């Protein structure tokens, strides 16, 4: 294009400048289009500013999600938090307790193990309800308001958590469920916004930056919440993170717009670049094609992949610490760094894989579907292998930490695999599609740990190996299913004119 411009376009422009007043206008448009496509910097651009603000939003979102699991240890009286399962005597006990003065002024509650389970699980029951409605509302009113008020509402309810705990366990469960309702709309809303903001060859980069905030939020909030509980009071865990969420909300509402056309400070070349790159991929239909969506095999490939990946994800991050404590007799919570290490590895992998994915598509001319399938296979088969290996590590705690870190890190490839595939197959309805897949993806978080607990009544190594085999098999099935039926092309029902042709 540039060679053609130098050889033909410039002389043509010079010649026609003296013969016609209309033709130069057309040539200027062509020249401007060439400039738009090749000279749009990423630094300080509106689309990357959106990714950065979204990064901090999801950082706080996951900090608000996981802080209760840390604070709950200090909220419960010690004699009521004893697990029902008996600890195995297969491995010798590790002792790393250090007697350090700490703050003990926080209120204590007499909640048994079942009550604690309801408190921790109540979030998911609210979270699953607003997935599909969130995607639908985002397509109607825009993702900015929905995402902003979703995080704002979650922050406000987090600030109310200490009060709810004092009023009674029922109030606390209700507040956590309401937090789940607020968080449930956030991912569909963000996907809906990226359908208008992310050029096709930059999707992996932009989405990986924004969603990587979730992993880093976990990395920071786990040890930081522990330190706040240790030296201050557990109530400040909720006050500090809740206040930061409210502060973020004002920056989000001030600096972000739903579409490039509505942005106040975006440059004209960047706006033209984004709009021109998406002009053939978006639909102007006001009605949602529900039946074609639900009949779409590429969508169900994403559903199966997300369900399978989340089953292994929750098994790995929820139950492997229990395995290390009950079988290996080493509590991972004693070391905040080791608890956060798997999440840090996943965050790093998400950022790098996003850059690599778009490089392979843009520079190496690999097809979108090839990149999505390869990254999904790596991100799902890798964790499955190391999950099975975790059942055969004996009493080697260092190896257990290494396996869980490698497994979680490899899972980060899925963000540039099936996780953003909604935008490839139906950009206009990406929020709705994510709501559908996230609804199915939430189910493993609710039932997976329960099934695993029922399989490990005696805490034997053989019982835990069965748990790991089941999770790994589900993950392998999901990877193969997506590899067979996944797609990288915009579906017919997702573009303008489909309904007209059908009718």
Structure commentary:
By secondary structure, the protein is an all-alpha fold. It folds into 2 domains: 51-85 and 112-255, MFS general substrate transporter like domains (Growth Hormone, Chain: A, Up-down Bundle), CATH 1.20.1250.20; 289-503, Up-down Bundle (Growth Hormone, Chain: A). 72% of the residues lie in helices and 0% in strands. It is built from 21 helices and no strands. The protein is globular. The two termini are 40 Å apart. This is Sialin.
Largest sheet: none
Number of domains: 2
Compressed to H and E, one letter per element, the order equals HHHHHHHHHHHHHHHHHHHHH
Level-2 CATH architecture of the largest domain: Up-down Bundle
Which oligomerization state do the chains in this entry correspond to?
Answer: single chain
Helix content: over 70%
DSSP helical segment count: 21
Give me the CATH superfamily of the largest domain.
MFS general substrate transporter like domains
N-C termini distance: 40 Å
Instruction: Please tell me what the overall shape is.
Output: globular
CATH class of the largest domain equals Mainly Alpha
Which stretches are low in confidence, meaning pLDDT under 50 for 5 or more residues running? 1-38, 80-85, 499-503
CATH level 3 topology of the largest domain: Growth Hormone, Chain: A
Return Rg in Å: 25 Å
Main location: membrane
Domain Major facilitator superfamily (MFS) profile: 50-490
Protein name: Sialin
InterPro entries: MFS (IPR011701), MFS_dom (IPR020846), MFS_Na/Anion_cotransporter (IPR050382), MFS_trans_sf (IPR036259)
